[in-house]
């Protein structure tokens, strides 16, 4: 089965660095189709050129997050969910472009551009029947969060916050079969869901806790980390720019 990886991404100083790290992980994964969805009103030249030279099988989409849904400078980052419209756009593309027949073998995974992914993770998810799950490291103010497995079944979730949520999982902690996505055309992420419920808004109706397929040695191994990249400081750059001595704007970073 092909793994369709949906990645929301947006323009900022570290974007090319993040995409480089991610693409060079994906180059080691057989049968991976990367669906990159820019948070922008147009495809940007930077991402277009980047993908053309990436060596990956890819689809390049874009959809802007409406202004009233975007996080403003200074907002706490839990205020509004990010990447929601972009993930839904990736789902739309799959539903319109992949034939929903018996041969539609595949897996759908939502990979944010700043996390760290072990190659082993992709082999764990490749044989997903409905929805497979595993722990995520360094998330939710915890060493890791993840499903708790007893006798081969998920019975609850190890999380530091609101374990009563229908699916208290991080976006990086599950994959779904392509067939399930195609057969449930209404399943999507709800950007209006309260904080921490975005993943649940998609998974509710697709699967029950009892049906979840635990991977990564019964959810005892961490194969993905919710790393976050520090925003680079530009103090010197700005000081030099004020003197007309800033870095060459023709050099892409
Ligand atoms: C956490 C979760 O791990 C995300 O899956 C979830 O989308 C996010 O919170 C949220 O709901 O707010 P976090 O590291 O805080 O992740 O979020 P980011 O990595 O900053 O953003 C998630 C994805 O959306 C990234 O791929 C990022 O490139 C993209 N994004 C972010 C946009 O497309 N537009 C933006 O304005 C910001
Ligand atoms: Mn992130």
Concise description?
The chain has 253 residues and is of the alpha/beta class.
Task: Note the main attributes of this structure.
single chain; 12 strands; binds uridine-5'-diphosphate-glucuronic acid; Spore Coat Polysaccharide Biosynthesis Protein SpsA, Chain A; alpha/beta; 253 residues; 8 helices
Question: Layout of SSEs?
Answer:
Elements: E1 2-9, H1 15-26, E2 32-38, H2 45-52, E3 57-62, H3 84-97, E4 106-110, E5 116-117, H4 119-125, E6 131-133, E7 136-137, E8 144-150, E9 153-158, E10 174-177, H5 178-183, H6 198-203, E11 213-214, H7 216-219, E12 224-225, H8 235-242
Parallel strand pairs: 1-2, 1-4, 2-3, 6-11
Antiparallel strand pairs: 4-10, 5-12, 6-10, 7-8, 8-9
The structure holds uridine-5'-diphosphate-glucuronic acid (UGA) and manganese (II) ion.
Can you describe this structure?
With 253 residues, the chain is of the alpha/beta class. It has one domain (2-242): Spore Coat Polysaccharide Biosynthesis Protein SpsA, Chain A (Alpha-Beta Complex), CATH 3.90.550.10. It has helices spanning 15-26, 45-52, 84-97, 119-125, 178-183, 198-203, 216-219, 235-242, and strands spanning 2-9, 32-38, 57-62, 106-110, 116-117, 131-133, 136-137, 144-150, 153-158, 174-177, 213-214, 224-225. α2 (45-52) links the parallel β2 and β3. The longest helix is centred in the middle third of the chain and has 14 residues, at 84-97. The two termini are 35 Å apart. The mean pLDDT is 96. It binds uridine-5'-diphosphate-glucuronic acid and manganese (II) ion. Manganese (II) ion binds next to loops.
